[in-house]
User: Fold this.
Amino acid sequence: MNIFVLLKRTFDTEEKISVANGKIEDDSAEYIINPYDEYAVEEAIKIRDEHGGEVTVVTIGEEDAEKQLRTALAMGADQAVLINTEDDLEEGDQFTTVKILEAFFADRDVDLILGGNVAIDEASGQVGPRLAERLDMPCVTTITKIEIDGTTVTIDRDVEGDVEKVETSLPLLVTCQQGLNEPRYPSLPGIMKAKKKPLEELELDDLDLEEDDVEPKTKTTEIFLPPEKQAGKVLEGETADQVKELVSLLKTEAKVL
Amino acid sequence: MSKKVLVIGEAREGSLRNVTFEAIAAGNIVSDGGEVVGVLCGAGDLSSMAQEMVYYGASRVITVANEELKTYTSDGYGQAIYQVIKDESPEGIIMGHTAIGKDVTPKLASRLESGLVSDATEVVVEDGNIVFTRPIYSGKAFEKKEITDGLVFATIRPNNIPALTRDDSLAGEVTEKEVEITNIRTIIKDVIKKSSEGVDLSEAKVIVAGGRGVKSSEGFEPLQELADTLNGTVGASRGACDAGYCDYSLQIGQTGKVVTPDLYIACGISGAIQHLAGMSNSKVIVAINKDPEANIFNVADYGIVGDLFDVVPKLIEEVKQMKVNA
Assistant:
């Protein structure tokens, strides 16, 4: 089975965010594989181990993203592709990303594509379903379980807390939700092996794309931080009195009751 | 410049979700004096819900009823909405950022080769440009975003853009559209209801959330009772989910749901940065925690230092008492 994983390099969830010159400060930031994409990597490896085939991890980004690709290889993916846009693109949006991925997948034999249901940085959640549409594949978002039998696929998906049981077929694109699996940590032998696994680097040219083809449809005009939350009132006295005061404050001061 | 804007409504268990009315309000801003056309897909008689969309500010409403649209599938709804878009040639489309909105809008935008601003919390017209505000890094920062080319397409986060006041003197035409739906590639075999009473965390006005301090799944019972008393719903921190006290679908945080209720009551939650990212934009936050140094107190409007199993039952009684007196 030809399994592909769409991976994004994101800020570590521990990172505090600061803004300088209208941009998110990224000088000293730690990066990770987007946590939802990590579920996708883990599931891809499990599916390959059960059904055979190869797992290819694909990312769009700059040279630095090689580190996250190597981590995915160390977890057990077979090969990785970095579509390096450093020299070609100043800006992009989900339209841009999907144009590039569409070109990448154009002449590839695909059975299954897995991605995260959302990236924790820009959080658009668009790339998976957008790509499925371009590739004319069925798409199931926010999956928490997947079983493959021949070309028949049965899936559990999270729909605002309810579980939807879905039946569909390969080729297919899915986006992964928390609860799908517990991603493994790369083992030491895994890390050693990963260094020798193939990592291909492509540029827009290699995909027969011009800068104009991938011009974004949206632009960010400003980035700002939410107003600093003032630490509030810690109530005092006996519990019963605190509770009375709280209800009264919620009613008269905060006006939420 | 005035625009024609489609607003895709959404029903849940036979009635419109509140976010539909909020989307109409957003549609009114984007249309800038133009026409706001409601669209409602489903099965059976949709006319009374369509009428309700008119009362909340839609100029007119198109209903698409088809047995294939009884339950949501991305192929079914995608085809139905796409056919309405082709008929109407709108300059804007607005929908709620709900499970359905998140699933269907990227596919439509991709097919239309348009931009899409997801999860907007505000929309304004500035110097003739339509400017959306949306959270990034799970609410640790915000960005302003504009569509530079073509269709103004956006989903809006529930609970953020106020709906217009219902006015049943408003009149608007409701028309039915027939669509052909073919080739549904994902079949819904079953839906297992886990959410307690149909209020999704993202739309809840009141959330009572538990963390590791709740200690067990039984420990969530008083939280559920408090939530019921306040007509709210229960959420959880990652700690509580990882410990197996509750389902991951309840998780609030950087991984998990991002919520903005009117009232958020955090019980036994320490306040890790990932959790704060998911809830710190709530309008009013109450923290109940044994540890006076807990990080959660830094974002709370009101704090009670104490054992949640002592505080929560008292709080339930006090709220009930308040309701009796009211």
User: Anything to note?
Assistant: The longest helix of chain B spans residues 308-325. The radius of gyration of chain B is 21 Å. Chain B touches chain A through 90 residues (CB under 8 Å). The CA atoms of residues 315 and 321 of chain B lie 10 Å apart.
